[in-house]
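Q: Second attempt. The first request was missing the SMILES, so the protein and zinc ion are both included now.
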Amino acid sequence: MDINRFKFAFILTGLPVFVMIVSFIAGVVLSKKQQKLDSFKQFKSSFDWVNFSLLSAALFILNFAFFPLLQASEKSEIESTSIAVAFVILLVSLGPILFPLIVLLRSKKYESNHDLERMVNVEMNTDVKIRIINQNLVNAFATGVLPFSKIILLGAPLFKQFTKDELKAIIAHEIGHTRKHHLLYLTLIMILIQISLLILHQFFILPLISLYGLGWVYKGVSIGILFVLGNEVFSYFQRKTEYSADKFAAEAVGKTNYANVLRKLDEVTGGKLQSKTATHPTLNERLNHIEISIKDV
Ligand SMILES: [Zn+2]
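A: Got both inputs this time. The predicted holo structure:
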């Protein structure tokens, strides 16, 4: 049995988990005192072991299967680069493709609501599945890259804390993501970023490092810098999709109504919308954008 193959699959599967733990710890350390416990509680209530295990197992299998192909013996540079590119494409799209399937299979955890689904699909002239997440999560999100797997997920507490019209505004934002194919674009952008970084590393940085005889520290640092750079570029596009989904929702339910729902969502979540994250602009940036991008009717 090839021990290196196991090591490779193990490290590459563990890497995203490691990044997740580090960013979680950084988030807790940087947050205010009373928020520290909150962010821990939030993490505990939103973390799902079943999803985590299924996605990790799929990732491990993919890494394990690709290891012999990625070994560079007797291959031209073009051949090995093409294999690496194919590997990156599969690696990036694995989660976005697999997650909606998991949601559809776990019907107890992600409960369907046919009345709401029918109403949304008729009113917004769209074809999307709606699932209610049975856990303490005051949030909504859209998932599904492939057409048949487009799902809008709504945290169960939203139904208690928001009126029917307010809920419609929240759903309209997610429909905006679905209708504008944001998930597909973001997955393609991520693939492009990763391939560009791979080529940059392989053909420019590694030759420079070996030209100057630099050691593994430089290799590690250069990978780290590329990783941060890639994340920044991706975040830029992710925030753009948020503005676009806001515009769609504001046009669907009215600018003032939508802005009020965003403010209420911020209130209910204890000011969560006010802080800038990698995925979302701040509440004020979003409100300003709605104000300038839509004319009064
Ligand atoms: Zn969004």
